[in-house]
Amino acid sequence: MSALSLRAKWIETRKRHAGVTLVEVLIVVAIMAMLAGGVAFAVLPRMAETRVKTAKQGAQQIRSIVQIWQTENGAECPSLSQLKKDGFMDKGGNTDDPWNTPFSLKCTGEDIVVSSSGPDKKRGTQDDIVVPEEGGGGDDQAEPSE
Asked: How much is the pTM?
């Protein structure tokens, strides 16, 4: 046999075996599914923690804005819409927590309490986010980082 015919046979054999089998495709899909599952397992708990931190920061920011508003306008407790109307918050600014529930404002004497209903979207439950935290003494300093 000549070298040319051997090469032609080799090329023909390669053409018949070109492509991937269904088993190979299924193995690749299974590996990708396992990787996606691992990423979701690692990321989803972090997303919940991040939402809680974002809600606390939003509540602290609103509380600071209310303190400034009270300094300029008297001791009454403004609503979130009043703060927007008076220009203390952006008109397009978000006054909702990360779960799309409006923050709640309550002024009692010298203290300003801003709260979010938390992940369950129900007020007065264990997962509510309250600033300042109950028993926190009313100072607006951020929690120390870990």
From this structure: 0.65
